[in-house]
Specification:
This protein has six helices and nine strands; from the N terminus they run ββββαβαβαβααβαβ. It is globular. The protein is of the alpha/beta class. The strands form two sheets. A seven-stranded mixed beta sheet has the order 1-2-5-6-7-8-9. A two-stranded antiparallel sheet has the order 3-4. The chain has one domain: Alpha-Beta Barrel (TIM Barrel), CATH 3.20.20.70.
Length: 211
């Protein structure tokens, strides 16, 4: 279920909202997702990334997320990424980005690229001036293989993800498509060609190497 502007959540027990990998600060803002990827650690009862337990008992509040970011100047980038789809909390995400913008060197979202489909509108203009980079999960060279591995909840997700990338190019300066090498039927060179056709970057990920 997408976030509305009126969504308000109460703080609960302490949980891992911010975590550091290398020189980046990651913000784990929801466990909810618009995909049910068969290779996602949480579907194998593994809720950890590099020993960080990322299972949430509630969606953290705006104040919790900002506090979890720490001092953005200490990191190369702030990344919205956990074991869930951060754009399902789009309005909270954008407000956090607004608050951190003047201190963050770079703000990136790891996303499945389905926000436009989920919200029923083009949300990419909302990111202009706030989001520096997007890492978008392409994951397959066609809809058939994508559906097999990513198991989207909404029909037309693969095409919607590609359309999201096309729209986002106008508002976000750095976009990279990613695909997981090691999944049955996934053609990494074909995925890279899709990125080239779209005029964006490409990064090969490795199956079971999370974080």
């Amino acid at each position: 279920m997408p976030e509305t502007r009126e969504t308000a959540r109460q703080a609960g027990p302490e949980q891992v909202v911010g975590y550091t990998l290398r020189d980046s600060r990651y913000l784990n803002i929801t466990n909810r997702c618009s995909l049910r990827c068969a290779f996602c650690p949480k579907f194998n009862d593994e809720w950890t990334v590099q020993d960080y337990p990322l299972r949430l008992d509630h969606d953290p509040t705006l104040e919790e997320i900002v506090a979890a970011a720490g001092n953005p100047e200490d990191y190369r980038e702030i990344v919205f990424c956990g074991l869930g789809e951060p754009t399902l909390r789009l309005y909270t995400l954008l407000e956090v980005a607004t608050r951190l913008r003047h201190r963050a060197k770079r703000i990136r979202i790891n996303t499945d690229g389905l926000a436009n489909l989920v919200y029923g509108r083009d949300v990419t203009p909302d990111m202009e001036g706030l989001i520096d980079a997007l890492s978008v999960s392409l994951n397959a060279q066609n809809a058939e293989i994508y559906n097999r591995h990513c198991r989207p909840k909404l029909p037309g997700s693969y095409e919607a993800m590609l359309d999201f990338v096309k729209s986002a190019r106008e508002f976000v300066p750095d976009i990279t498509l990613t695909a997981v090498d090691g999944l049955s039927g996934v053609d990494i060179p074909a995925c890279e060609k899709i990125a080239q056709r779209l005029g964006v970057g490409f990064r090969r990920r490795v199956l079971d190497a999370v974080g």
